[in-house]
Predict the structure of Arginine biosynthesis bifunctional protein ArgJ.
Amino acid sequence: MQSFLEETKTYQEVPFTWPKGYKADGVHVGLRKNPNKKDMGWLYSEVPAQAAGTYTTNQFQAAPTKLTKQTINQDHLLQGMVMNTAVANSVTGEQGMIDAKKMQKLAADKMGIDANLVGVASTGVIGENLPMDLIQKGVSQLELLDNDLVTEAILTTDTHPKTISTQIEIDGKTVTISGFCKGSGMIHPKMATMLGFVVTDAKIADGQLQPMLSQQVDKTFNQITVDGDTSTNDMVVTLANGMADNTSISIDDGDNFEKFTDAYNAVLTKLAQDIAEDGEGSTKLVEVNVENAATHADAQKVAKAIVGSNLVKAAIFGEDANWGRIIAAIGQTDAVVDIDHTSVWLNDLPLVDNSHSADFDETVMKEALTDKKITVLVDLNSGTATGQAWGCDLTYNYVRINATYRS
Amino acid sequence: MQSFLEETKTYQEVPFTWPKGYKADGVHVGLRKNPNKKDMGWLYSEVPAQAAGTYTTNQFQAAPTKLTKQTINQDHLLQGMVMNTAVANSVTGEQGMIDAKKMQKLAADKMGIDANLVGVASTGVIGENLPMDLIQKGVSQLELLDNDLVTEAILTTDTHPKTISTQIEIDGKTVTISGFCKGSGMIHPKMATMLGFVVTDAKIADGQLQPMLSQQVDKTFNQITVDGDTSTNDMVVTLANGMADNTSISIDDGDNFEKFTDAYNAVLTKLAQDIAEDGEGSTKLVEVNVENAATHADAQKVAKAIVGSNLVKAAIFGEDANWGRIIAAIGQTDAVVDIDHTSVWLNDLPLVDNSHSADFDETVMKEALTDKKITVLVDLNSGTATGQAWGCDLTYNYVRINATYRS
């Protein structure tokens, strides 16, 4: 069965690079013990950039998350972001907000810009206060450089940086979109995911960056799950500084808008997949495509229920084609399901045929399950809508990492 | 802090015994390979009993679950139940219903009663057909005895039978309520849990058994979670055969009704706790009590979110007082939460004090976490309602069991 997702690309994926006008840096200042782990970083645009953000829906929203949201909402402009790992500055009361604002001010002063133009992001253990002496020291060591060390500086239990750059041509001008993020655990975004940053030199028409981000986040970051837990520090921030000097991109201008949206979607999709694939303890990326659903929302819900099922995840880790768990996960949702004509494929092999076992060869299926990427395709036979979600398997290492996280 | 749950008991817990007029049996017939594992069983009442049931909300409801629901709904009477383990007879199409009905008829014939008085329950792998030759052989071996082997015969990955009996006096007559169930995995009931059976010799006023069961299930079985997955075969069935010859119990008769409800609630609560405590791979029972919530629904939601969090569960397995995860789980819900004045205790030790770390001694807390039962108490400071939920820790063994379930 052919995936419904293959289309002609109008963008090019290129090695990670900063779009025009962006500088960054990352340092190790001692927030984490391992001297090889960068633990503070920042990002800077030569001119103020249009900014948009999506933030966790967890009621215990962390101080840096609140502060960044407030800062962006003032005038939808940012010129810099400063980030740290190891300490989330979450559930830290008034002191938390004082510390977040101090971190914002320190970075702004060093960048030589107004504090109102700087966002702050923290990730790590909840409930501990930021060690402000180290934060101050870290900011003093950061420089405006061309390196990509900030993509390392935001990681926690991630095993590698997650980055991507895409480029398009708009009326003869090259526009670059670059994204990086961290993920790994407490990943079940309802608004955004842990920390994600997407920067572009595109010029975007006023007021159109936020709806574009929100729409794409719903299709990408909000469709991944590692463990069903929504973080207090979730945040995706996007900056567009206009330095590509392209004709301004607007929803009223169909072709360029679509081209940009495709390239932008590719960045968010890649980052979302990276987070799922590098979920804590993960050995396999699981992608679920749902088709012939009654509505897009139904398709998204079913896809997410499957990648979110501990039992499905453990079976995939065990390379066991236990399709009853996929069916049980589908049936747990309130999506419209044709319960007598639901079919499932695993890596293109028929697994369930019209709600009956598809008489598959267990040996062939077992072999397919050794792949590093497992694709599940579900046909709900209830309409024409499609949806997608990503997750990972549930492994001994997930338990180990989370049984010993603070030690 | 004193638990809000301590009250004077009006019932007595006694060693497991069948109420008046009930017979049962369990055999090994070969559905499971291990000859020491009973795999078929039944239950019989000398006279038709009032019957009520609650069933899975999973859209892929298994054939035996559908059949039992239909049978009970006809006239709310049952005289027998026949059960098997190893094969769930779920997602088995028309053949599944034919097999379930045949199993019902075989048992009814052997019991010498009408098939319309027999319920059927199956549990095990989804998607496989019942081996009817073995089912037939099993029924031929079952007898009407006083043993409790049926409580073993329904188990899958459970490590031990889950049983309880309570007794009360109603106007000089002894009334017995006995329950048994299986649980272990795919436990996140939205209606009932895997398989639970509660039988009593009480006489209950017409039409009052079903509302009593439904109400108690909401407070007990529906408040446990092992892994967030809702089974296709969930069912709780209760029988009341009236053979205790007590004054009929009715909601209009306050004292006796309350006494019976307390004893009935004790049975369901114990079974629910047993399932949580014996969740797949579990090493610890986790009980969460929520108080000062705006509504009972809020309290139940918050309690279940905490016991349902993989991260909280893994931290408890690791005996790590990572309270940020408890706070994050609370904040994920839409319950009314006073985010600046939420407090948490672990085994009576202050952990979070008004949304700040309670300055606890890590060594003392670590010691408390070595207990086999972990009690989390949450004060939401938002009202006066309370709620409870039960779960277990997330361990390497959960992953092992579920990576290899079909092998």
